[in-house]
Amino acid sequence: MATVVFLHGLNTYADGLVHFGPLTFGRMSDSWRREGLKRGWQFIDVAGMGFGAVEDQAEKAIAYLKKERLLNTPEPLHLLGHSMGGLVARVLAHRPELKGRIRSVITIGTPHLGADITEHAMQLEQTSPYLYRFMKTFGYDVAKKRTTLQNFSTVKLLELHERYGKLDDVRCVSFVGNVTYEQLCLPYQVIYSKLHSRGQEVLSDGFISCASQRWAEDGGDFAVDHMAEIGVYLNVSRKRRLFAQSEFNRLADAVAKVIARP
Q1: Of all residues in the chain, what percent carry a pLDDT higher than 70?
Q2: Which of 58, 79, 110, 189 has the smallest set of CB atoms within 10 Å of its CB?
Q3: Which domains, and CATH codes, for the chain?
Q4: pTM, to two decimals
């Protein structure tokens, strides 16, 4: 039985839930936990990582694994990280406590080379006051998150990318979310239009460019936006929701094949 450690993405609420304005959609890990149960994985959802710098989150992940008595057992571990959680996985793979234990590092929608959205969010109050006020109305004040977001600037993430490279004895695979503007749900279309100039087409999952998501072995592209990568579908159209779900299922199959490799 494979032991899969799931590391969720950036959550500035520090609660591990999927937030969209005032709404919540369960835990970030829920869909991947269901996939793990179907496939017979021992699925470990690392809780309590907070929303600090990547290396701080890795430290909290180590503390969680220690509390769950997973540091001193012999079985190999597969680290599955979504978004910023993929960067935490890369840091963990270098930790001496886990030396020789990590079988694979799998990243999904991870900004290995930086995220334009972070830079934009830090300046949102000045560059898009209407959008800033709209988000604040729904309970998300970007200005109050600025200190946290600074940890995820492109400069900081490129430094991290250089510091925690691929390990020769660990299988490292990145999976890429790649959707067209038309395939994005309406909120992501608004974000995309703010990130990119009119007429500029950037391949991305709505948040992170495809170029930034690629690292080590390329596991392939999937037509899932940043939320659909964790099995959350915000499209109004039923047809598009079903398509996103089918792509998530295809992604889950591809991840399972990596984990099942001898």
Answers
A1: 82
A2: 189
A3: 3-260 (3.40.50.1820)
A4: 0.89
